[in-house]
Specification:
The chain has 421 residues and is α+β, with helices and mostly antiparallel strands. The protein contains 12 helices and 15 strands. The radius of gyration is 34 Å and the shape is flat.
Length: 421
Amino acid sequence: MRSLGRTLLSSFVNSTPIPYVSAGMQGRWGTGRPDRGNQVAQMDAMGANATLFSIVNRTSTAVAKECWHLHRRSPGAVCTYEDARGKCEMPGVVDVPKHPALSVLGKPNDYYTTQEYFESGQQHVDLTGEGWTVVSRLGSVPYELWVARPDRMIVVTDRTDFLVGYIYVDPNGQEMPIRKEDVLSIRMPNPKNPYRGMGPVQTILSNIDAGNYSAEWNAAFFQNGARPGGIIKLSRQMSDPEFNQLVERFNLGHQGVRNANRTAFLEDGDWLDVKPMSVADMQFVETANLNRDTVLLAFGMSKFAVGVVEDVNRATAEASKAWFGETLTVPRLDRWKGMLNNDFGPQFGGMWTPDLSFVYSNPVPFDREAARADKLAEAQVYALLVNAGEDPVYAAQVAGLPEPPPRPVITATPVPAAIGA
């Protein structure tokens, strides 16, 4: 009973009811320290793998091109905000066109546009599972937003308070403490570490390395055969100057693509032929496709989304666009939305009220075929009910159609008597 009472009391005194780090691991050396070398490798991988670059480029630009606006709850109202995607028309809210939070998001700093801020941050999330923003203030109010590399951010942990603050490690290795309210973060949850994120690139680094080694072998094959095509057996031991001269002359006449398949002439020695491994033996196409498919699988990306067109038609292309928006873009935008509404907006103090919220434009393209099918089904239900004798107003309500206008009253016009009748 004493231990239970202590546990209940600690849940009121401490900010966390259970410790997330051990007593010897709390602070900067706890689980909040990044795996710096691994995170750098994950970011470097984008520039080393064409499939990965294509995926991250598409997901980050898709997130960055969406427009954000601000809602305030207002029962009975309808949002009138409109952008390139169309009208918002969300019920129960009104558009807030001016707010300091919108101004900061509209110009994060003097060097970043809104699009660059979201794209850069989303690249970090896709590559490492983490996105970090450092807030610069004018007084107590956020004034600028700066993207920080995940491998430079250290989370200062605590057994009872969970989070104390952050340390930023600059390019010179100098450490700068940062208050926790001055850092905004997005994480793809790590099942073993509540302080850090986990991204898909962590699961495929070895596959990306294998693909890079395969590409290097392929390039070396055309440069020098990748392995000896034969062996020169000398009849005597040569001096170093003679040996170097033989090697230099042989390479000069036979090394490189332009000298492929030239006949070799030897002044002193025998040529022993060695069958080299061919490009076909290496199965470069199969290896490249396997590597590509593994990267696509890690991100849950379709081949069509990265430009691999196989048996595609207009219907599947339109479906792929909708799938990309629903499955890949919306979850990423939801993470940004959670960060903006929970962490960024409330930092504006009294200028931010609980009825305010950031919202993004819907990235899912309008499905005209589905809309036509829905309207046809509604019309069929309406016609069925009216033909069965139901009231047209009631039939329209059941079918989800607007209430029909009242029928015009037609009065009979008397026919004048024929002249001379």
